[in-house]
Design goal:
278 residues, alpha/beta, Rossmann fold, 6-stranded parallel sheet, homodimer, 2 domains
């Protein structure tokens, strides 16, 4: 039997839980507040950030959307500092990548660790590596939550993390280093991925390439976490060929796997941050 | 031909270079200053920290040794803040582990990133993971420097990092994630290490176990980085059985491999920090 790690169904359950937390906090007079910061003029990003705001508001959270079509490092830093000091705001999310010319490290480094609910700052990523308590990047939360909901332990396994971004693959590999597991990380374009995939118990992809992982590369019973998001027109494809599913013991479909979970994880972290202050 | 990665000889060369940098800075009226902070009553640690001070002073650096046999988190934090603000001090090293009862994360998180010359803080470790510029932990610097001096590229290889501390193995694996290499990390006691070792091009051990890696576990031509420091009386043994050396293309001996490099790397980072201010 192959388990489909259904991100949509899981998101619905998680959002109900988060909404219940928000209601509880409301009883104490606290409204979890999230500040969403977008730079540049990418329309897809703008739509995505607006969706985050809408989802937050729908469950009774407070959300602010700040869009800087043009800005400077100095202005952006000053704005983040203002959010750091704002008691209405429990979580700050700066949409990455930033608009061209802006210094990403400077921006994420300015976010107060207590408000870094999207796990973007070096301070947070260092804590992920150290195995210390922090707000995990939404992508990691999504994977761990999906496995938990389907009673699959992330431990005692050999993970292959195929990808190298600061949002997902590198922090995920760092996170796994603190488990009773083994982890192999390789860049999205590493020519050795077929060999590495063959012995992996879990394959987590962030390869930006349609069907890069094929059935001949994996072993029977593999768990597939596919973070691919490869568009061809309006159709989206994963990094993993669906033929792999037949050999897998569990997999995240694309679409409908980890993707839908991301906003829920961000909102849950924000509610946690508000709870800590309560 | 097997290359012996000679830490003592390399340290001597590096220390000459660092001394020359210190002299250059002296010409500009700058003396690189290092604050060494020790807590508790471990005699071995006290001796080691005093050695760091002596080595620094020998090449014309300024060094302070602060020993708190008994202290509190509050007192230690206040002291680190004082060092952060002290213009004589360019680098701060807090000897770990801290004395029992003290909060290690609190202490290392207090060190200003610009003065975190031993790569201890979450901010620094996050930057290591992100591939951003920072002062690398001395253990990583030592390994990369040894490879460089012997013209061995760390890239294009499959690394096995066998160990899981915050000082060495986890940051090292994080560092390698930013190279054109693959890296597998497993805990020091992971039962799968023999299997993982078999396909590794480089094996870096921090296993706290005498001769844990044996010749049958490795492939021909492997590069061995042995961070073992296992004492039996006054004799010290590596994590790697010397019989492995015959199959290796290069290896760090124990003693005389990475160990002697550590102080030199700390001093070099401190001088770099002073240079940035110059």
């Amino acid at each position: 039997m192959t388990t489909i790690l259904d991100g949509r169904a899981t998101t619905a359950v998680v959002m109900e839980e988060v909404a219940a937390e928000v209601e509880k906090l409301a009883g104490k007079g606290i409204v979890p507040g999230l500040a969403l910061v977008l730079t540049g003029d990418d329309k897809y990003s703008a739509r995505y950030v607006k969706l985050k705001k809408k989802r937050a508001e729908k469950i009774g959270m407070y959300a602010e959307f700040h869009h800087f079509e043009e800005t400077t490092d100095k202005e952006l830093l000053a704005f983040i500092e203002k959010l750091n000091a704002d008691p209405k705001i429990h979580g700050i999310m700066v949409q990455l990548p930033l608009a061209k010319g802006l210094d990403e490290l400077l921006a994420v480094d300015a976010i107060l660790p207590e408000k870094d609910v999207d796990g973007l700052s070096p301070n947070t990523l260092g804590k992920v590596l150290m195995g210390e308590d922090c707000y995990l990047p939404a992508g990691i939360e999504a994977i761990m939550e999906l496995l938990k909901r389907y009673d699959i332990s992330p431990e005692g396994k050999h993970w292959l993390v195929a990808g190298g971004t600061n949002f997902l693959s590198k922090p995920l590999a760092a996170y796994i280093m603190n488990m009773k597991s083994r982890v192999t990380q390789a860049g999205a374009k590493c020519p050795h991925i077929p060999t590495l995939a063959k012995t992996a118990d879990v394959i987590c992809t962030e390869m930006f390439k349609k069907h890069a992982i094929t059935a001949d590369m994996v072993k029977d019973g593999v768990i597939i976490i596919d973070n691919g998001n490869n568009y061809e027109g309006k159709k989206v494809f994963g990094d993993v060929d669906p033929a792999v599913y037949e050999k897998a013991s569990a997999y995240t479909p694309v679409p409908g796997g980890t993707g839908p979970m991301l906003i829920a994880m961000l909102l849950r972290n924000t509610v946690k941050a508000a709870t800590k202050i309560a």
